[in-house]
Amino acid sequence: MTEGEIAVFGGAHIDRRGRISGATAPGSSNPGTWFEEAGGGGFNAARNLARLGHSVRMVSTRGGDAAGEMVTAAAAAAGVIDTPLTFLDRQTPSYTAIIENDGNLVIALADMDLYRLFSPRQLQRRALRDAIADSRLVLTDANLPEETIAALVETASADRRIVAGIAVSPAKVVRFLPALSNLGFLFMNEAEARALTGKDCPDAEGWPPLLRAAGLNGGVVTRGGRAVVAFDRNSVCVATPPALPALADVTGAGDALASGFLAARLAGHGLDECLRHGMAAAGITLLSPLAASEQMSQANLEQALALVPAPQMLA
Question: What is the Cα–Cα distance from 81 to 46, expressed in whole angstroms?
C-alpha cells in the first residue's frame, strides 16, 4: 500500500438526519430523533476505501468552523489522509435529510455553496497535482463545479488509472456531462440516470445502451431493491440485491457500493465480481445508522459476499 493510492475529490461536510418515529404525516409536525455526523458522497467513499485497507487522500473545501473540525476528526478516525482547502471565513457545507421510519428518504436540503469555490485553478496547486499523479484511482463526486469536474477528469485520465464519479443527485449528475468520455465508471441511481440521459427505462438491461449513447464508458445503475446493472466498454451484468432484515438508513449505500466495486477493480476483478463486492459493501452500510459504516472492513466484506448472488452476464 502506497501513500496516495487513491485520491478522492468532492463532498466532505456535515450530514444532519431527522428520523420520523412513526407513520409520516406530510404537512404537519412529526415526532422523531435527530442525528448529525460527517458525510458527503466523496467522503463516505473515502472512509469506506480506507477501512478496506487502501491509502486514501481526501480533497475538499471546508469552512473555518466547528463543522469543519468535525470533518477533520472523522477523517483522522477513519485513517483518511486529509487535504482540505480551508476558507476560514466561510461555513462548511451541510446536507439535511428527513428519513422515514423504514429508513427511506422523504426530502433533503443541500447547502453546498462553498463547493463553488473549488475552481479548476485550485487543481494547479502542487499538492493536488501530486495527489493525482501518485494515484491508481481518482474518484470525484458531483458536488464540485462542472468545469472543475471536467478539468479533474481530463487530467486524471491522461495516464493509465481508474477515473470514476459518484452522481450524488439528479440535479448534480448533469455536471458530469462534459466529462463522460473520460470516465471509467459513474455510479448512479435510476433517477440520476434519467437526468443524465433525458430518457426513462423500464428495466435494468436498457440503461447501458442509453448511457453509452450519452458518451459514458462504464457505470452502475441502482434501482432500490430491484436489479442493479453494471457495464463497461465490453460487458454488461445484472444482479438482484439480497433481501435484508431491516434498513437502518439508506444514506451512504450508493457511496458504499462505489467503494466496494472500485476496491475490487483495483484488485483486478472482472465486472461481475466488482458488482458483487459493491453490493456487499452497500449491504453493510444499509444495516448501519451511519453513512460510512464503522463495520466496513475487508473481513466483514468477505462475510457479506456470501449473501450476494453471482451477477448474470448479459454481454
Answer: 9
